[in-house]
Amino acid sequence: MIKIVNFEGVNSIVRKANFTIIGIAFLAIATFILSGCPAATPTSNSTGIGGVDPNETAATVNGKVIKIEEVERLIKQQGQGQEAKLSPLELAQARLQVLQGLIQDEVLYQKAEKEQTVPNDDEVTTEYNRLKTSSGKSNDQFLKDLQTANETEASLREKVKKQLAVKKLEEKIAGKVEPPKDSEIDAFYNGNKEAFVKKKGVKLAAIVVDPADNGEGDTTKTEADAVRVGNEIIAQLRQGGDFAQIAREKSEDQSRVQGGDLGYVSEEELKQSFPPQVAATLMNPEFKPGQILPTPMQGKFYIIKLQERSDKDENLTLESPGIREQVTKSLTDARKQLLVQAYAAVAMNEAKIVNNLAEKVVANPNELSGARPANVVVPNANANANATTSPTTTPANTNTNAANTKPVNTTANKPAANTAKANANK
């Protein structure tokens, strides 16, 4: 992930983007495995969604066939059972979108083969094992989930190989980019001084305990489990345990990869994302950096650590610690991203692509019904917008590291870990 200069307003100048164009097939199955979300029930290969022939050729890339079977498999993995509710028109749109991603994947993989960036077996095995470990599931559960997603170890390894090949290709291409000159860095800063403002706010980290049953390997499947584990974590912290290490080992939030780091959050964002009492405590000068604050939010239990607090807005310069380095990296990464996108566009133009699904739509524009299957209820997007769950029991409060703050009712408050800007004002 490209890191942008972490100050107010800069995101509108240099956009945050994924450097690697992750293969759509690999991304779909990896997301399913890591999230533990239920996928569609495995079906026979004799028929696809809507009665299509899975052996039909959806497209060819320089003569390499992409079957409709692969398109259908990805739609099922991404739809997680909801694809049956789509109308023929919606299904056609979904198929074309998925197929376009598969076509680009194949184009770039063929380029990777020519550029000799295809990984060896050991590299594939290492990444495959990392994926299994990251899932937090036992080997049996991992294989069961693969089967549910209509995949095998062999097919997943093949997707891992292609994903790594394309990633290495992009790194090779991006290696041609040189760091910006000092004059470019100075010009960027002078043209965007308003963006280099460190807003009044706090830098936070969190350990999150989730009482929901997230599948095999999850040790906190009930509220009582969450209370027990939460108290154990607090006890470890009282005894001098390293917050970042404990977060990596026990937090049930994506922020665990960064040792629980949520980044810098302005006071305004803090008030929008956290319960009022929590926001007030974190901004209170009497609550010192290094202290922790246990609190329930959105049905989960958060152990929040205050890492830093700024009590007023601060204008930053290129001489401020880390600023010139961050601008350099942001401009370099943005240039790399543009180069990778341009390279992919040129590769697509050079490839001989035949998109049979698209040709069918062009030839038969009036045959796709927009009507959904009978008895399908379209969910109201706003039906659950205000529905929240707050635990009724929380781990014992601690006065050793935390403020003397009672747990608060978090109904209608937004979750913190995923809405706080992880890199803002770092």
Structure description:
- With 426 residues, this protein is of the alpha+beta class.
- Among the domains are: 18-174, Porin chaperone SurA, peptide-binding domain (Triger factor/SurA peptide-binding fold, Orthogonal Bundle), CATH 1.10.4030; 197-315, Chitinase A, domain 3.
- The protein is 43% helix and 11% strand.
- It has helices spanning 24-35, 68-79, 88-114, 121-135, 139-148, 153-174, 182-191, 223-238, 243-250, 267-273, 276-283, 323-350, 356-363, and strands at 57-61, 64-67, 197-198, 201-209, 261-266, 292-297, 300-310, 314-315, 353-355.
- Strands 5-4-7-6 form a 4-stranded antiparallel beta sheet, with helices on both faces. Strands 2-1-9 form a 3-stranded antiparallel beta sheet. The protein has a two-stranded antiparallel ribbon with strand order 3-8.
- A hairpin with a 2-residue loop joins strand 6 (292-297) and strand 7 (300-310).
- Residues 1-18, 38-50 and 374-426 have low confidence and may be disordered.
